[in-house]
């Protein structure tokens, strides 16, 4: 007896599922067991194998099957589980991430990971190595950083410590506060200075900074009463006499020591002293801007300089930094050493380019009094610039630095005070010396000297 259509569909359903032509796209029509359903074309079909095979050969079905991407993509149970990473591979990837965090940009890990993997394709550790920017960033942020922070806090424990604090605004206009901790390490048996935190803040006023600072110490398990001192810059919000970061902290920690950054103090002292000099000196020191964006001008000046100085190459004039005033010492020295070459260049440029800036610079460079000012700046900016660099060293001796600051003060007092009076002062307590009573007349002061080896036929009268 012939099978009914319903029994036919049920009997041969397993055959459809094993047939490579019908597998994947064919199933029973829901609601009507006497018909089949094409999942690719979304249509019902007669439940006979011959009709089903003919449907599979049609152009419409072939295109629908490609678009639907049904066949060959059935998920396996193993696809839902990740193979556990081997311990040697974990160690290798963490070491590379730590190296990148310490020495290079995270972007470089894309190429570094491939390079290390290709060094030894037979290595059981390196062959499975996979480390790119996203994974490296996640390892640094979520694994390495918390571990280092935990070790740091355990090492500090309940001993006394100091913190260096500075607030700034990032490129994307976010306000952040950087904290560096300084303490005696029993493991290393020495005083160490180490990065502690970088905290995003909403406001940079004294109250907000203090609240965030205290809250972070408490959250990390550090006792605020053990805070021995803070290092800050010379900003008013940090060290102002009334309602500043340091004054608010001293209300709860009366014995707190506040140390202002010596580099900032030297910078501000030099900047304020410069304000007493003529303003044209600031314009003269921006000769860098004239050459910075013009290769043609650089080549023209190079040829002039070679003719004047027997084939020597000109010195590149430094760009002035708005927040680091002492950077202009290098610019002052290099302008002074190339005075005649620059004078000739701008004398030719003012007529060739018809430029007002070139005309003004040419006029300034022709004045010998201006060269005298530049000589003075080059002579007496050098000691304070050298002292500034000493304080930026990573392994400087604090006692030696104290002696260097005292010698710096003595250097400038020798310019202002007659030697007979200065000999009466105690050399180790010059900060208390009332030098204003003995300042000599400007006509007796030494304003520096300039070498004529690099300046052709130049004299100062």
Keywords:
4 domains, alpha/beta, 461 residues, Nucleotidyltransferase, domain 5, 19 helices
Describe the structure.
With 461 residues, the protein is α/β, with parallel strands linked by helices. It folds into four domains: 5-68, no CATH class; 87-148; 157-260, Nucleotidyltransferase, domain 5 (2-Layer Sandwich), CATH 3.30.420; 280-444, no CATH class. Helices cover 50% and strands 11% of the residues. A hairpin with a 4-residue loop joins strand 5 and strand 6. Mean pLDDT is 82; it is low at 1-5 and 452-461.
Rough outline = elongated
Percent helix, as a range, is 40-55%
Radius of gyration: 38 Å
Give the count of helical stretches: 19
Q: Quote the average pLDDT.
A: 82
The topology string of helices and strands comes to: HEEEHHHHHEEEHEHHEHHHHHHHHHH
**Largest sheet geometry:** 5 strands, mixed
Separation of the first and last Cα atoms = 131 Å
* Count of individual beta strands: 8
**Uncertain spans, ≥5 residues at pLDDT below 50?**
1-5, 452-461
By secondary-structure content and strand pairing, the structural class works out as alpha/beta
* Multimerization state: single chain
Neighbour order of strands in the largest sheet = 6-5-4-7-8
Strand content: 5-15%
What is the total domain count? 4
Provide a compact summary of the structure:
This protein is of the alpha/beta class and 461 residues long.
Give me the secondary-structure topology.
Blueprint lengths: L4 H14 L7 E3 L6 E4 L4 E4 L2 H8 L2 H10 L18 H17 L5 H11 L13 H24 L4 E9 L5 E11 L4 E12 L4 H14 L7 E6 L3 H4 L5 H8 L4 E4 L1 H13 L5 H5 L2 H6 L2 H14 L19 H10 L1 H14 L3 H11 L1 H24 L6 H19 L2 H4 L39
Parallel strand pairs: 4-7, 7-8
Antiparallel strand pairs: 1-2, 2-3, 4-5, 5-6
Helix pairs in contact: 4-6, 7-9, 10-17, 13-15, 14-17, 15-16, 17-18
């Amino acid at each position: 007896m012939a099978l009914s259509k319903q029994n036919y569909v049920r009997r041969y359903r397993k055959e459809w599922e094993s047939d490579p032509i019908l597998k994947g796209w064919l199933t029973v029509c829901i609601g009507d067991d006497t018909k089949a359903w094409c999942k690719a074309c979304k249509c019902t079909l007669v439940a006979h194998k011959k009709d089903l095979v003919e449907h599979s050969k049609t152009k419409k079905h072939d295109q629908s099957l490609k678009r639907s991407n049904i066949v060959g993509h059935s998920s396996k149970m193993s696809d839902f589980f990740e193979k556990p990473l081997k311990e040697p591979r974990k160690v290798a990837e963490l070491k590379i991430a730590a190296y990148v965090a310490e020495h290079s940009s995270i972007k470089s890990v894309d190429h570094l990971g491939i390079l290390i993997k290709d060094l030894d394709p037979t290595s059981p550790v390196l062959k499975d190595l996979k480390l790119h920017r996203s994974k490296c960033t996640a390892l640094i942020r979520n694994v390495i950083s918390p571990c280092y922070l935990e070790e740091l806090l355990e090492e500090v424990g309940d001993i006394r410590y100091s913190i260096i604090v500075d607030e700034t605004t990032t490129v994307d206009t976010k306000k952040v506060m950087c904290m560096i901790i300084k303490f005696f390490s029993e493991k290393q048996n020495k005083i160490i200075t180490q990065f502690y935190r970088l905290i995003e803040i909403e406001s940079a006023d004294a109250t907000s900074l203090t609240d965030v600072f205290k809250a972070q110490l408490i959250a990390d398990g550090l006792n605020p009463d053990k805070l021995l001192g803070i290092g800050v810059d010379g900003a008013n919000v940090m060290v102002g006499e009334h309602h500043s970061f340091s004054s608010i902290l001293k209300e709860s920690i009366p014995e707190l020591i506040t140390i202002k950054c010596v580099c900032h103090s030297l910078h501000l002292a030099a900047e304020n002293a410069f304000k007493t000099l003529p303003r044209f000196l600031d314009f003269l020191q921006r000769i860098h801007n004239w050459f910075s964006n013009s290769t043609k001008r650089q080549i023209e000046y190079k040829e002039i300089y070679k003719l004047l100085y027997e084939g020597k190459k000109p010195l590149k004039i430094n760009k002035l930094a708005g927040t680091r005033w002492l950077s202009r010492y290098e610019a002052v020295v290099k302008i002074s050493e190339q005075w005649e070459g620059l004078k000739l260049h701008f004398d030719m440029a003012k007529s060739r380019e018809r430029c007002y800036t070139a005309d003004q610079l040419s006029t300034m460079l022709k004045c010998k009094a201006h060269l005298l000012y530049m000589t003075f700046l080059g002579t007496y900016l050098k000691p304070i610039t050298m002292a500034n660099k000493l304080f930026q060293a990573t392994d400087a001796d604090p006692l030696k630095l104290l002696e260097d600051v005292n010698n710096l003060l003595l250097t400038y007092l020798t310019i202002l005070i007659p030697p007979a009076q200065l000999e009466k002062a105690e050399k180790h307590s010059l900060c208390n010396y009332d030098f204003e009573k003995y300042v000599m007349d400007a006509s007796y002061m030494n304003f520096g000297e300039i070498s004529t080896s690099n300046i052709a036929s130049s004299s100062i009268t």
